[in-house]
Amino acid sequence: MFDKSKAEVLQCIPLSNNTVKRRVDNCAQDIEEQLLNKIKKSPLYALQLDESTDTEAKAQVMCLVRYCSVDDNGKKIIEEDFLFCLPIDGNANAASIFGLLDSYLSENKVMWSNCVGICTDGAPVMLGAKSGFKGLVLRVNGQIQFTHCMIHRESLAAGLDQESPFHEVLAAIVKMVNEIKAHPLQTRLFKILCEEVGAAYTSLLFYSKARWLSRGKVTRRLITLRSEVREFLYAKQSPLATYWDDPKFVQQVAYLADILEKLNELNVSMQGRNANVLTLSDKINGFQGKLNIWRRKALHDTFDMFPTLHGLLEEDDLLIKSQITEHLDGLSGKFEEWFGDLPGEELDWVRNPIRVEEWDMPLKHLEELSDLQADRSTMQHFETTPLDTFWLSLSADYPCISDRAVRVLLPFAATYLAESTFSDLTYIKNKYRTKLDVRNELRVATT
C-alpha cells in the first residue's frame, strides 16, 4: 500500500505464532453467531449442498443457506450466505453427509421443520429416494423440496454423446488442439506463426470435460484460427491437416462453434446470486423457444442465426443440413427430458398476481389472493419492488398467500454458490498449505 520502507517497519513488529489465526477465528466465530441468529429468527430457510475434494484429497461438504431477513431500512428481504464447510474423514456416502448436516443443525438449534428446500448436484448419493441423502432428509421433514441444480441439468442436456452427429467432430477438434498444445515447443512455434500473420489470437485452448464452458470456447478459438492451424499441421506433416481440406468438416466446426456459444451464453446467464426456480425456468423456456425457431429456419434453408456458418455459406453450398436439423431435434428432446418438470402457468400468480386467476389453492389462499388483487394501494408497489421483497412485505396482511409465495422463491435453483466457494477453498487451501483447517478462513473470505 505504501513503499518498501514502510514494509520493513511493519516486519519489525513482533507477532506471536498464532496472532493472525486467532483474529481470523474470532472474526469467523462472530460472523457465524450473527448468521445463526438470523436463521433462527427467519420463519423459513433453504439449503444448497455440494461435496468435493480439496488439494489434500479430503472430502469437504459445502453448505450455503438462504433465509428471510431485514435490511438496514427495515425492509424484509431474502439473503444468502455461507453456512459451513466441514470435512468427512471416511466414506462420503449419504449417511455421512446427512449425519454431518444433522449434527450441525442440531448443535446450533436450527429446526429442520423450517427448512423448505435443498438444492444438490443431482448425484445418486444425493437424490436417492430411499437410501440416499434425499431419503434420509425426508424422514425428518417430508415437506422439503429437493432440486437438482438447473445449471448442471443444462450441461447434461447440452452434451454431445456418441449418438450425436457431431461427436466425432469434437473428437477431431480435441486431437488437433492436443497435437499443438501438448508440447511446449509446438506451442511456441504456433505462437510465432500466429504473430507473423497477425492472427487474432496466438494460442489454442485445452479442452476440459469437467469445465462446462470448455467445448464452446475451444471450438470458437479453433474456427477463428483455422487457417493458421491448417498451415501449422501441414508444416508438421500431420494427418490431421487433411480435415481442413474438407468443406463439410469446416462447416461442422463452424456450426459447433455457433451452437455451443449459444449454449454457453445460456449457462452463464443462469449463474449468479439470488437466482430462484422462476427466473431460471424463464431462461430455459426462452432457450427452448429459440431452439424451435432455429429448427424451423434450418428446414427452410435459413442459417443467419449461426453467423460463423452463415459466413461460410457465401463461398460453399451447405453440406450438413440434415446433421444440423438432427442435432437441433436431439437438443430439443434432451431439454424436454431434463426440464420437463419446470413450473409453468400454475405459478404465474407469483410472477404477477394482478390479473392471474388461480384455483388450485386452499380456500383461504384464494380469498387472500382475491383481496390482494383488489388492494390497489399495495399493488402499486409491485412493479417497483423486487419479487421476493414484495411477497415478504405482505406477511402481516396476507399471511397465507405470502407464505405460499415465499416457499416458491426461497429454495435455491442451482449450486452455483457452492461451486464458486469451492474455488475459494482451492485458492486458500493450496499445495503449500495442505494441512490447513479452512472452515474459519473460508467463512471470513466468503461471507
Content of β-strand:
5-15%
Query: What can be said about the biggest beta sheet?
Result: 5 strands, mixed
What form results from the Cα inertia axes? globular
Helix content: 40-55%
Mean pLDDT: 90
Q: H/E element string? A: HHEEEHEHHEHHHHHHHHHHHHHHHH
Number of strands: 5
Count of DSSP helices? 21
Give the termini distance in whole angstroms. 24 Å
CA radius of gyration is: 27 Å
What report would you give on this structure?
- There is one protein chain.
- By secondary structure, this protein is an alpha/beta fold.
- It is 54% helix and 10% strand.
- The protein contains 21 helices and 5 strands.
- A 5-stranded mixed β-sheet has the order 3-2-1-4-5, sandwiched between helices.
- It starts with a helix and ends with a helix.
Secondary structure layout plus pairing:
Blueprint: H1 4-11, H2 19-41, E1 45-53, E2 59-70, E3 76-88, H3 94-107, E4 115-120, H4 124-127, H5 133-140, E5 145-148, H6 150-157, H7 167-181, H8 184-197, H9 214-224, H10 226-235, H11 247-269, H12 277-299, H13 307-312, H14 321-338, H15 348-351, H16 363-374, H17 376-379, H18 387-392, H19 399-409, H20 416-428, H21 439-446
Parallel strand pairs: 1-4, 4-5
Antiparallel strand pairs: 1-2, 2-3
